[in-house]
């Protein structure tokens, strides 16, 4: 097991210290620790922050490393974008293992050591995407923890056979049951939600459902999700991703829903989008709701943006929520590090004894300055193992 | 005068060519041009785009190069942020010349060769900020064109003596008359607007007014601005910066206003903010309204974000407006290059014969890929003079 001593780092904005990680866990943080038989690395006085967590992405969508995809579809229609993706992937003979390796290692290079990835399950691709991502998760097990969500991207009730594939995906080891806009895409909220909650119950797994539906429609779907969460005693086991409806202007409606989300300990994952309403950090924090953040897919058929950098995402979260104080920007960072792990139901990444040995060294004068400039990553450590240096992973991407 | 031949570049996503710039203007674009007596630089096959334009910033606010400013004020109150800035600048004995040099040269390093800067005019700082920025504009005249707006940041009607200082600022050469939230800050829209339009009339100069006011209040102020624009025959001479009210949900109200803005050829400058309503590119384009973009102040007492990179701003504009198609992202870029120059009432930067000799070489596979990755700048050319290479200006910042 790991036995690593990182010398001479600044603990967030605090004093210089050494960090000892033993058996994957932070064993000691203090100045001038004795190396003993530990592998020793010089931290160069850089700032140590907890490792980054991408709590919402799609490892099976990126076109990284392929010729530039010229997008002429745009964002007008969700169904149109879904169909376009299937068409392009078919034409490219898309290899989910190779692409998920590229995507995951890019994330690691930026300091991400934990990823929750939705993986398309549909009657066209079958379980191939999941197989490819699982292969990547296994190969990179010592580099980045990858959690998979069986995600019915093309719809569940509208494509016969998808529920059975989801069932097999969960048997194969997908960690969570996914879902997608039960009204807008499936046009059968009862059927969609009954199906995914039944799968969750059968397999004893949690749920992470995409909910892009806005305003009252989104609140209606959310209400039906919460009914089932309560009825099946799934407190703490449900995540709602995007949850755009929580950004609707009628705050009385939103706040009532936030109270119910808090009571059932439902986690919210956000990309902090700039072009749509979104759950707001201050409002969710006031209710103590767990929040994670994600890059979502990047450089895929959906759009050209993004790069896998969750430190840059912390900046985006800060800007989206008008967080200007240093203390607020640090909360945005927390959502992309320890808070994101907690939102995933995992132990909090933190720079303290007993926490997971997952951390990143970044250059910069202060933590906030590092966030706003998405400063270079000097060293990335996963469970006490060095996995990237100077923005490059030790394992090469295919 | 300049006589420059840039060999072997790609013209946007087009074919390889050479670019000749003579006397500050693009004289020829074709493969294998004869060098003659021109200074010759190798473009290395990089992508040439028109130079970037920051059409809305504050050169007299940045804290670049100073110790990190820990913000504990936040964004709750506009007046609070204004007062905090005055207090901090006093404590720092703020040097507007040095700071504006740092800010402007950072912009140039990223490929910006034209800047419109609002400059604080108030009864505390007097004309010192303008003097400092004018000194910078003069020193950098061959590097970046800097246009100044006399900006009553601390209020106009609520601080006696400010109008007289504005008058002197315009005599001193400030290019435009500024203004600020005539209802929300000055609480006297008639007084504020009558004053700034009288100054514009007296000096024969245009207006660029900050309008953060949202919803109906913003539309009311905008209505009063348009009344005066029409009455004083100032078609094409007025700019409204931010114009958050144009992002209000009631599109019938917005669209009626867009029609009037178009009729009076009022330009809109935006930062494409993610945390507030904002004018939307597609809607303004449908009316043919001139749009420029800006970084606004960065790393100042207002907030920690931003860096002076208008190519990154093009990405922000694209994301804020949900522009996913390559053609749409190129429009976002245009707003930050040639379109921004036009919004400022200047000749369009463009890669064509007769256009200003202001351009940037960026690395990347395609223009859109360069935008979304805010790719490294290899060469920056202002009016046929090389002013930055590999992200570094040829002149050092103080």
UniProtKB/TrEMBL annotation, chains A, B:
GO molecular function: hydrolase activity, acting on carbon-nitrogen (but not peptide) bonds, in cyclic amidines
Residue span, Amidohydrolase domain: 127-388
InterPro entries tied to this protein: Amidohydro_3, Metal-dep_hydrolase_composite, Metal_Hydrolase, Metallo-hydrolase_Enzymes
One Pfam family cited in the UniProt record for this chain: Amidohydro_3
Cross-referenced NCBIfam families: PRK05985.1 (NF004636)
Protein's name in the database: Cytosine deaminase
Phylogenetic classification of the source organism: Bacteria, Pseudomonadati, Pseudomonadota, Alphaproteobacteria, Rhodobacterales
């Amino acid at each position: 097991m790991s036995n690593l001593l990182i010398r001479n780092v600044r603990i967030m904005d605090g004093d210089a210290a050494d960090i000892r990680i033993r058996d994957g866990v932070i064993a000691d943080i203090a100045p001038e620790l004795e190396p003993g038989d530990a592998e020793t690395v010089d931290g160069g006085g850089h700032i140590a922050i907890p490792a980054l967590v991408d709590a919402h992405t799609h490892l099976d969508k990126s076109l990284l490393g392929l010729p530039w995809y010229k997008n002429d579809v745009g964002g007008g229609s969700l169904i149109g974008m879904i169909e376009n993706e299937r068409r392009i992937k078919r034409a490219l003979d898309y290899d989910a293992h190779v692409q998920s390796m590229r995507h995951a290692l890019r994330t690691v290079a930026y300091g991400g050591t934990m990823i929750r990835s939705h993986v398309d399950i549909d009657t066209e691709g079958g379980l191939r995407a999941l197989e490819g991502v699982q292969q990547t998760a296994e190969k990179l097990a010592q580099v980045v923890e990858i959690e998979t969500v069986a995600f019915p991207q093309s719809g569940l009730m509208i494509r016969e056979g998808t529920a059975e594939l989801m069932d097999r995906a969960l048997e194969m080891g997908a960690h969570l049951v996914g879902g997608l806009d039960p009204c807008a895409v499936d046009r059968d909220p009862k059927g969609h939600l009954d199906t995914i909650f039944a799968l969750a119950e059968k397999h004893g797994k949690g749920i992470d459902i995409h909910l892009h539906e806005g305003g009252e429609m989104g609140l209606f779907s959310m209400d039906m999700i919460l009914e089932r969460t309560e009825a099946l005693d799934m407190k703490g086991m449900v995540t709602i991703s995007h949850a755009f409806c929580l950004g609707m202007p009628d705050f009385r409606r939103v706040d009532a829903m936030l109270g119910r989300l808090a009571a059932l300990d439902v986690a919210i994952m956000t990309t902090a989008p700039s072009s749509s309403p979104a759950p707001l950090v201050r409002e969710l924090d006031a209710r103590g709701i767990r929040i994670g953040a994600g890059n979502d897919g990047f450089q895929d058929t959906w759009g050209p943006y993004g790069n896998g950098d969750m430190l840059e995402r912390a900046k985006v979260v800060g800007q989206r929520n008008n967080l200007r104080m240093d203390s607020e920007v640090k909360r945005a960072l927390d959502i992309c590090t320890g808070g994101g792990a907690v939102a995933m139901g995992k132990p909090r990444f933190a720079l303290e004894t007993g926490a997971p040995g997952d951390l990143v060294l970044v250059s910069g004068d202060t933590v906030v300055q590092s966030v706003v400039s998405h400063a270079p990553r000097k060293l990335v450590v996963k469970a006490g193992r060095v996995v990237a240096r100077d923005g490059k992973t030790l394992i090469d991407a295919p």
